[in-house]
Each structure stands twice: as structure tokens, then as C-alpha cells.
Please model this.
Amino acid sequence: MTPVLYLASQSPRRRQLLEQFGADFAVLDVDVPEQRAQGESPRDYVSRVARDKARAGLAALAHASDALVLGADTEVVLDDEVFGKPQDAAAAAAMLRRLSGRTHAVISAVWLVGATGEQCEVCVSQVRFAMLDEPTIATYVATGEPFGKAGAYAIQGRGATLVEHLDGSYSGVMGLPLFETARLLRRGGISPAD
Ligand SMILES: Cc1cn([C@H]2C[C@H](O)[C@@H](COP(=O)(O)OP(=O)(O)OP(=O)(O)O)O2)c(=O)[nH]c1=O
Model:
């Protein structure tokens, strides 16, 4: 029995990245709370949320015993602080000010869950930002790009002009680390379509 693959995500970036793997899949809309628990490490938090998304997707499918559901989460981490998505322009500017001239981590976790088991991969990248002056921050926030993005930037968009150096996975920073995801999928018996 060939497993049927689902992506539990509302993110168009994740959809686009998973298409690069080349396997057929369907998208599930899930909405899980993203709240870091007291004492929870950033890595554990990102992994837990990714797992919750995948589990919520599997639960929504109810009786599909051949289903495998992929869930992912991406967060920006600086000084043990997790930067989620900015609520408004002021929050976006504040995040970018904090990231200016410093190196932060981007943690992306991916879980593949099915009736017979659960597996995970975690990818950590280091991103160094250039020094950003106030006009640069204001201009970038005004593009609207920071909204809906962890850490208030998009490496795949104009945010690339803020990134001085990347040590890690470009697709991981964008939301779905493809090397690790492909490894997870192959382990789950999923290969690219012919
Ligand atoms: C750092 C960075 C993040 N992001 C995005 C990836 C994720 O979509 C988002 C982090 O939020 P997530 O909560 O990981 O994902 P999401 O809410 O967008 O989608 P879903 O939970 O439905 O799967 O930030 C970029 O697109 N580019 C970047 O450079």
C-alpha cells in the first residue's frame, strides 16, 4: 500500500517547497495554538508545535489508515527568545532592530505522522543580519513582507538584502528544510512521482 501524503499547513511557502520534492500531496488546513510553555527550550517548542500540526492534520482525516501527514514549524531565536510572527508594524520594527548586526538561529522542525508511527527532523541555521538603520527598517516594514513571517523577514523576498551570511539551510529558513524533509519522506516510504 503506497502511503498518501498530506501537508498540514496554510503556508504557501511550505506548499511551494514540498512541490520541489516531487511527490503528490494534498493540503490540510490546521490551526494549533503556538504558545511556548514555561521552561520549554526553543528547540523543544518548535518541535512540539510542528508535531501538533501534523497530529491535528491526521486527526482531521479520521479513517485514512494509509495517510502520512507532514507538519512543520519555523521560529527565529535570539538570546533564547523566540520571535514569532509580528502582530503589527511596531512589533515588526522592534524585531528587526533586535536582529540588526547580530547572528540569530532559525529552527525548523518537521514531523511525519501516520497510523503506524511518528518521526521528526530538526534543522538549525545561523543567520547574520547586516546593521540596519531606521530608514531601512521602516522601508522594509512598509513593504508588508514581515507580516506572517517568523522574525519579521523573508529570506526568499526583499529580506534577502538584510542577510549578510547564512550558515545552514535556505529552505529551512524559508519554512521547510528540504534535505531533512526528503530524508523523512523516504523513511516513510514516499518517493518522488515519476
Ligand atoms: C525566517 C523566515 C520565516 N518565514 C515564514 C515561514 C513560515 O511560514 C513562517 C513561520 O510561521 P509558522 O508558524 O512556522 O508557519 P505558518 O503559520 O506560516 O504556517 P502553518 O503553521 O500553517 O504551516 O515564517 C519565511 O517565509 N521566510 C523567512 O525567511
